[in-house]
Amino acid sequence: MIQIQHNKSIKNYTTFGVPVIAKKFTQFSDLQELNEVVSHPEVVGEKMLILGGGSNLLFTQDFAGIVILNQIKGIEIISEDMDQVLIKSGAGENWHEFVLYCVDNGYSGVENLSLIPGSVGASPMQNIGAYGVEIKDVFHSLEAFHIESGEVKIFNNEECKFGYRESVFKNIYKNQYIITSVTFQLSKKPIFKTSYGAIKAELESMGVKELSIKKISEAVINIRSSKLPNPKEIGNAGSFFKNPVISKQQFDELKLKFPEIANYPLPNGDVKIAAGWLIDSLGWKGKRIGDYGVHKNQALVLVNYGESKGSDIYDLSTNILDSVKQNFGIELEREVNIF
Ligand code: EPU
């Protein structure tokens, strides 16, 4: 039996940890409960928000609808042979715990994505990525519950239309599906991805002689821990902005004025710019206003040191957007979902 709670603080279900009250709140841990939730008279017609790890959102006001926590757990092997394994995880599993499970069992593919906050079910939504790997590289399929019809649909890799921090679930199918499980295709014969500069450097300073997925996972954990604030200690939602993509022409002009600009040329000729560099070079890194500010080691990350309001953090992000636009002519986009 599911329960509907009223006027519930959901601050502790989000990694930003700003104060927020949900008009209604409930949770489900299997498909049957999910069916019950969506057909419940207290839910029908309400604005819904499906919550996983709460690591990619910022509330700027109370939520006047129902917040639904996805608690579907369980990890199972679907099939395996000498080389590969298909592994299925409930959407409500914690992402990092899932990664550690794979690393401990010798399944390679997600080790570069260690320590990313959030749930397994949220990982394909925005095609999470770090240190040279994105979910789309290891994604096999997912099961999603169609809210309107109550049917479960399987989406394969192509159908998710993954892009940089993008999938169909963030645009054309927004608010239409609830992801219930994700299946990954991982390798039993490890393929090490260490081309990202920071990983190479970290493995060297760890004195690693023989590579393993465990060592790569440890290296990523070390890098993330040194650069990114731990949400258990300082409220944050990882990168607040996306890295913008600009034309080669715009890049060449900028490069004349700012020779140091951190950039990654893309195969199609466009250039991805490190938003962290843009924000940092304008002096925002480490800036603190009362209980909120820009993280001291990574300018892409906005932080809540304790009691700040979501709307204050949002206003800070607007000031940063304006400042980057004025100085570089680039319009940054927020990566975090704003409510
Ligand atoms: N940089 C600065 N100052 C800063 C931050 C970065 O000059 O304050 C420069 C760095 O020196 C480097 C470049 O910007 O030359 C890129 O920095 P980094 O390697 O730290 O990566 P990022 O572009 O800042 C992206 C992802 C992160 C992911 C890392 C590693 C986005 C929006 N962010 O950050 O993802 O962990 O690459 O792959 O794509 C997240 O999405 O929440 C997240 C943390």
Task: Provide a short characterization of the protein structure.
The chain has 339 residues and is an alpha+beta fold. Helix content is 24%, strand content 27%.
What would your notes on this structure say?
By secondary structure, the protein is of the alpha+beta class. The chain has three domains: 5-70, Uridine Diphospho-n-acetylenolpyruvylglucosamine Reductase, domain 2 (2-Layer Sandwich); 75-227, Uridine Diphospho-n-acetylenolpyruvylglucosamine Reductase, domain 3, CATH 3.30.465; 235-338, Uridine Diphospho-n-acetylenolpyruvylglucosamine Reductase, domain 1 (Alpha-Beta Complex). The chain has eight helices and 20 strands. The protein has helices at 31-39, 95-104, 157-160, 197-205, 213-227, 248-257, 275-281, 310-328; strands spanning 5-9, 21-28, 48-51, 57-58, 63-70, 75-80, 84-90, 129-130, 133-134, 139-146, 152-156, 177-187, 235-239, 245-246, 263-265, 271-273, 288-289, 292-294, 301-304, 337-338. The strands form six sheets. A five-stranded antiparallel sheet has the order 6-7-12-10-11. Residues 130-131, 198, 228, 238-239, 242-243, 262, 274, 276-277, 280, 285, 298-300, 335 line the site of uridine-diphosphate-2(N-acetylglucosaminyl) butyric acid.
Characteristics:
339 residues, alpha+beta, Uridine Diphospho-n-acetylenolpyruvylglucosamine Reductase, domain 2, Uridine Diphospho-n-acetylenolpyruvylglucosamine Reductase, domain 3, Uridine Diphospho-n-acetylenolpyruvylglucosamine Reductase, domain 1, 3 domains, five-stranded antiparallel beta sheet, four-stranded mixed beta sheet, 8 helices, 20 strands, binds uridine-diphosphate-2(N-acetylglucosaminyl) butyric acid
